[in-house]
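Quick one: structure for this chain?
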Amino acid sequence: MKNLNARHLLSLVTLFALLIQFPVRAADFKHEVIYQIITDRFFDGSTANNNPAQSSGLYDGTHTNWRAYWGGDLAGIQQKMSYLAGLGVTAIWISPPIDNLNANIPDGQGNPTAAYHGYQGRDFKRIEEHFGNTSNTWTDFDSLVTAAHANGIKVIVDFAPNHSTQDNAGEFGSLYDNGTFLGNYTNDTNGYYHHNPNISGGGWDDRYQVEYYTLFDLADLNQENATVDGYLKAATQLLQQHGVDGFRIDAVKHVTWGWEYSFANSIYTNGDSFLFGEWYQGNTSDPLYHDSYKFANKSGISLLDFPLNTAIRNVFGSNTNFSDIDSVITAEGTNFTWKDDLVTFIDNHDMARFLTVNNNNNRLHEALAFILTARGIPCIYYGTEQYLHNDTNGGTDPYNRPMMPGFDTTTTAYKLMGKLSTLRHSNPAVSYGSMSQRWINSDVYIYERKFFGSVVLVAINKNDATAYNITGLNTSLPVGTYSDYLTSLLGGSSITVTSGTGGNNPVTSFSLPAHTVGVWQFTEGAAPPEIGSIGPAEAQPGVSVVIGGNNFGSTTGTVKFGTTVATVSSWSPTKIVATVPSVANGNYSVTVTNSSSQVSNGIQFTALTAKLIPVTFTVNNATPTQVGDYIFLTGNTIELGQWATTWDGAFGPMLTPNYPNWFINASVPAGQTIQFKFIKIAAGGAVTWEAGANHTYTVPTSGTGSVNVNWQY
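Got it. Here's what it folds into:
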């Protein structure tokens, strides 16, 4: 490996040793550093697939047509695996690799355009010929996954279940099943698509339009159709069979929300995986923010942390006060049950790169250090470590997707990522710990991550000219002197901690120079078992879950769901794989008892009744509602809230494009006879139940279902 100095090589060797010693299963991604790759713009590993016959004329080797293929492919990513491992990357998120639109749809100037980004899928069970080979086989994909796993790197596939191809040109939304034509948008006799207008204007905040209208003229798939439901779930299972460790769900906000519960459950039932989705929102004041965290808390799909992204870009890019970040961390810490699974990022393929917003490498380094040490799973956009940006037309799509300029392993950003990736694996406080603000002003943010006895303290001064004298700082770090974990890479120095009480040990006053980041850490020694993660956090009996944490010991102990003992299939000091036992549906505290009879803390788990089936519930002529009132679905199983009457407990709010009739798609347990009712939750919180006996419905054992009833007065 070229250009690795001795210190960085040692860091890399340490990281690999940790990966071998503490294997990380896919369902626990909290240790990972994700690297997002636009496959076409990373590296051209094979010229044989640049201009394939079935989609010829869509390649531009001069890299001047920004909406054409430029040659990057799966072989190119594979060839740079050592570079990625040296960067500290432990998971790659690749753009959708499936077979994409073949048609040439010229732009307004007659230039060809292509789905080089991967988001116009035509066949979800074959690999795109520009990324693999002209036969659309899985050969290159399998080689990439094998190489990634050999380097301790997981593979996340971007998956777009919302739509196929453009509905008004080209292939008109045509969908294929491993080469067999299923149908298209213009001749949709089987009901595979929603035929609604594009979302526009105030529709972006309307739940019905957001889920059922069309996104930018892309043929909107009808997931409530049994064929579409089975097709999408089979496609993800096929990807799992080819070694995929996780899925980033594109436009998760625009897919039928209730259906996605069953989608996630299908993936988890099939095998170990991690899921996160794209739910765009500017901040925690977004009209659908409450819906977003309810979805993340209950669906099994985590989210990309857009509110924190906005705050990061404001603070480090536009120089607003650190209170912007701190307020988002506080709000989301209250709202999200699984906040440590939120995926944090500085920029991505849908926004101008950070250096376009503020062409200041110091600020970039500070933002990188923040997401690599703050709560959540950090995701770095390809080329950030090479200071990649193109500012044409404000640097937005497609200019935020340049070709990777090179693979220099000596940049400060490259070395910073490697160091902090190692810290994520060696100190559980970064992966699992609480996050608390310890000292703040407009330019300085000092925060602490703490997981039982393990502590990481981080100080950031973003001012480019002014040093600050830090006085009155307290920490949970034990008494002692601590050197900067980054070895002054970003200007940090040693601190001294003196004796205090209640986890508030004073730090001797010190100067924090301009544009400086300091990181100080302590890793706890022997202690009772400590659970930091469980994934998935909701599943039916028989599904495997991964429990992550510390001090489990090398000898197999016991895992309990409440008081019921689970079967353990794998046990290590930091990871346990167990099977959900036969327990009734409901919420449980999961604990670990080691071989010395020491019992861990408990972690929440929701036991489902059975695998989930999407069912559309319609209630006609519901009780009159005023603006701000909504109808909800509630029932006798955990999947329907166990007769909950709150916004977060019941299923909904339901949708009413044909008032006073309301409907919602909900995921309910296969083969079970369920009882349910509808309720109105008024704007002020008052609850009105429909009258009469409970409705009953026997859920299908496979496919999809529907039930249509009248409101009982």
